[in-house]
Design brief:
Blueprint lengths: L1 H8 E3 L4 E2 H9 L5 H8 L9 H20 L1
Length: 70
């Protein structure tokens, strides 16, 4: 069961980078996939997680737009 939980929370299984680690990198200024890769190494092996990285970036941008309108 622990292995299943780990997979659910990993953004990048090749480098064992969690979604939380990617989100923290984005909060700390990583505003492109390339910057996330530099900070976390996610997406630097097989590339299957790049859509996940892009989704996390888009969620952050959507949040910023929403907050900017308030």
């Amino acid at each position: 069961l622990k292995e299943i939980e780990d997979v659910l929370y990993l953004a990048c299984s090749c480098k064992k980078v969690s979604v939380e680690e990617v989100a923290i990198a984005v909060q700390n200024g990583a505003d492109t996939v390339e910057k996330i890769q530099e900070l976390t190494e996610a997406g630097t092996v097989c590339g299957r997680c790049i859509p996940i990285l892009e989704n996390i970036l888009e969620l952050k941008r959507s949040e910023e737009r929403r907050v900017g309108k308030e």
